[in-house]
């Protein structure tokens, strides 16, 4: 009898977006975004700082909302 059935054709189940508490600098939002999209955390942080300088109200509000809404996870 074989028990190695394949119930889903999807091998990699996509991870949900969450704050990364292992690689955090402030709250872990940028590290979580980098982990979710397989980017470098440094690149995401540089883009976030550039956007914070360019459009501070929108970027600051989005970062604050993400830090309050996103769940925390240790990767």
Q: Which keywords apply here?
A:
3 helices, transmembrane, mainly alpha, elongated, 75 residues, PspC domain-containing protein, membrane, two-stranded parallel ribbon, Phageshock_PspC_N, 49% helix
Distance N to C terminus: 36 Å
Query: What's the assembly state of these chains?
Result: single chain
Approximate helicity band: 40-55%
The SSE order reads EHHHE
Give the number of DSSP strands: 2
Please state roughly what percent of the residues sit in beta strands, choosing from under 5%, 5-15%, 15-25%, 25-35%, 35-45% or over 45%: 5-15%
Total number of helices: 3
- How does the helix and strand content classify structurally? mainly alpha
Please give the radius of gyration in angstroms: 16 Å
- What is the topology, as strand order, of the major beta sheet? 1-2
How is the main sheet built? 2 strands, parallel
Mean pLDDT across the residues is 87
- Uncertain parts: none
Form type? elongated
Protein name: PspC domain-containing protein
InterPro entries: Phageshock_PspC_N (IPR007168)
Keywords: Membrane, Transmembrane, Transmembrane helix
Written account of the structure:
The protein has 3 helices and 2 strands; from the N terminus they run E-H-H-H-E. It has 75 residues and is mostly helical. The chain has a domain of 48 residues. Strands 1-2 form a two-stranded parallel ribbon. The chain is elongated and about 55 Å long. The mean pLDDT is 87.
């Amino acid at each position: 009898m074989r028990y190695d059935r394949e119930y889903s054709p999807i091998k990699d189940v996509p991870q949900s977006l969450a704050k990364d508490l292992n690689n955090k600098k402030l709250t872990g939002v940028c590290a979580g975004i980098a982990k979710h999209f397989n980017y470098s955390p440094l690149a995401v942080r540089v883009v976030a700082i550039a956007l914070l300088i360019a459009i501070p109200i929108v970027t600051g509000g989005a970062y604050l909302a993400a830090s309050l809404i996103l769940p925390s996870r240790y990767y």
